[in-house]
């Protein structure tokens, strides 16, 4: 029960960050950023796109990361989708791009760090980075950097150059927040039960 509450708290924090990014019309990295970009381009719901984008990664996670990690991630993704759908019903408002990048990226970083440190993730590229780390020993941070770069580059069509630059800023801030928390909680994270999630924290 405590683990469920921790995942819900983490996804709630992330959903606030996503709301700020969406109201600023910018994106971030990972499947969250890809889903935001597709929702802008297609004019569809972020929640629906997020669920669809993550489907292939559930299969990879189940076979390579284990059922416990997969179930926790599935619960986190589903919770985030529902919370984001609820937030979409709030009154419309627009925020400056720089504000969305700074505040949205920071809040998302806090939420994702909390999820990582509690044995969960938001699926997608996090799982892929973990897989490459376990399979080939690749640095998950570098893998995430390449994946995020591709997502941002592909999003320029839907959000434009200037908002693309703000999106890069959001990724830098998000990554810094996660790294900061990883360093701060390095000692607890070394416990045997949590060793599988260390690459995830480094990845994003």
From TrEMBL:
Transmembrane segments: 7-26, 38-60, 67-87, 93-117, 138-159, 165-181
Membrane-topology descriptor: Multi-pass membrane protein
Pfam families named among the record's database cross-references: YitT_membrane
Main location as per UniProt: membrane
GO cellular component, one term: plasma membrane
Protein name (record): Membrane protein
Localization: Cell membrane
């Amino acid at each position: 029960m405590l683990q469920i509450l921790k995942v819900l708290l983490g996804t709630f924090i992330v959903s606030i960050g996503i709301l700020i990014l969406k109201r600023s019309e910018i994106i971030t990295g990972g499947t969250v950023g890809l889903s935001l970009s597709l929702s802008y381009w297609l004019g569809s719901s972020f929640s629906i796109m997020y669920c669809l984008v993550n489907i292939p990664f559930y299969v990879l996670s189940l076979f390579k990361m284990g059922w416990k990690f997969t179930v926790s991630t599935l619960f986190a993704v589903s919770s985030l989708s529902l919370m984001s759908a609820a937030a979409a019903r709030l009154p419309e408002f627009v925020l400056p791009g720089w504000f969305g990048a700074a505040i949205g990226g920071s809040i998302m970083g806090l939420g994702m760090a909390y999820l990582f440190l509690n044995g969960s993730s938001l699926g997608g590229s996090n799982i892929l980075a973990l897989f490459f780390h376990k399979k080939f020993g690749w640095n998950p941070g570098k893998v995430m950097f390449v994946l995020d770069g591709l997502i941002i580059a592909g999003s320029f069509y839907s959000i434009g150059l200037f908002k693309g630059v703000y999106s890069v800023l959001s990724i830098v801030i998000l990554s810094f927040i996660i790294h900061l928390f990883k360093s701060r909680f390095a000692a607890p994270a070394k416990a045997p039960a949590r060793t599988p999630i260390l690459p995830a924290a480094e990845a994003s």
